[in-house]
Amino acid sequence: MNKTQQQKVALVAGASGIVGSQLVKTLLQNEWEVIGLSRNALSHPDNIQVVNVDLLDAQNSAQALQPLSRITHIFYSAWVNAANWTEMVEPNVTMLRNLVSNIEKTAPLQIVSLMQGYKVYGAHLGPFKTPARESDPAIPGAEFNAAQLTWLSHFQRGKTWHWNAIRPGVVGSAVPGNAMNLAMSIALYASLCKAQDLPLRFPGSEQTWHSIVDHTDAGLLAEATLWAATSPAAENQAFNVNNGDIWRWSELWPHIARWFELEYAPPVRLSFHQLFKDYRTTWRELAGQRLMETDILQLNDGSFADFVFGWDYDMFGDGSKLRRAGFTRMQATHEMFFSLFTQLRAARIIP
C-alpha cells in the first residue's frame, strides 16, 4: 500500500477541548481512524480509542506511545496552564516534544498539525499590528505557541514528515464545561439578563465596544485543519483561520441581543466571572428541572469572556493566505453565534 492509499490514522492530543472535540467529529465523518490522548480520561463521547499518557513524563510517554505504530497524523491542541507566560513555555514544549519524538520512531508519520493562536503575534501583550499576518516578524519574549513551533520546525528538518501551524481567532463552540467557550458565556449572560428583565448590556469598555475581534467557527476550524493536514500546499506553513468576515462589537452585539429578544445597552465594564457567582442561585432556580445543569459554574466560569471583553484594542488576523492556498469555506459570524445559541437551547443548556 503506497502513501496515498494508506489508511489515515489520527492521534489527537486535546481531543475533549472545544477545538479537539469538533476535530474528532470531522475526522470520523471523513472516515479517519482516530485515537485520543488523555492524562486522565478513560473514554471519549465519540467512543474513539483513548490512550492515557502523561506527556510531561518522558518515561511514561515512551511506554504509552510505543504501541501506536500506525499513526500517520498528529493533531496537537493540548496545553497546560501555569502562573505566567514564562512558566508555560517549558512544560508545553516538553509535552509536544515527548509526543512527536516518540511517535516518529515507530509510526509512518506524515503530518504534525500544531494548534496555535494570535499570541504568536503578541496579542496577549497589548495592542499589536492588525491585521496580523503569518509573515509578521516574531515577537521577543516567552510565549509557548511560538516556542513550540520553533522546536517543531527545527526537529522536522531532514525528516520525511511535515508540520503545519493553525492560528484561529476566538473559537465558537457549543461544548459545555470549557472555560474558553465565549459563546457559552454570552448565552448564559443573556439568559440571566432575560430572567432578570434586564437589557443585554455590553460588558466591556467604550474602546472594546468599537474594537474588532475575529471569530472562528469550530466546524470551519476543523475542516481547515483537515484540509491543511492533507494538502501539499500547507506543508511547513502557518495559517490564520477565521470566519472570513470582520465585525466590531458595536455591530455584532445588537444582533446577539435581538436573537435573545432583548434590548441592548451601552458599555459598562462587567465581570462575567463575578456575575456568574452572584447569580449562581438565580441560575439554579432558572434551571429547575428543565435544564441539564443547575450549577452555572459547571457550564462556564466566565473568566475567558472577561479576558476577551477586556481587550480594548483590535484583535484580528488576515485569513487570506489560507483561502489563496485552497481552503475557501467562510462563515458569517453572526450566523455562527445564532447556530451555537440554537444548539445550546436544543441541548437544554440554556432556556
UniProtKB/TrEMBL annotation:
Domain PRISE-like Rossmann-fold per the UniProt entry, residue ranges: 53-351
Q: Which CDD domains match?
A: 5beta-POR_like_SDR_a
Q: Which SUPFAM superfamilies match?
A: NAD(P)-binding Rossmann-fold domains
Q: Quote the Gene3D superfamilies the UniProt record gives.
A: NAD(P)-binding Rossmann-like Domain
Question: Which InterPro entries did the record assign?
Answer: NAD(P)-bd_dom_sf, PRISE-like_Rossmann-fold
Name this polypeptide is given: NAD-dependent epimerase/dehydratase
Species annotation: Rahnella sp. (strain Y9602)
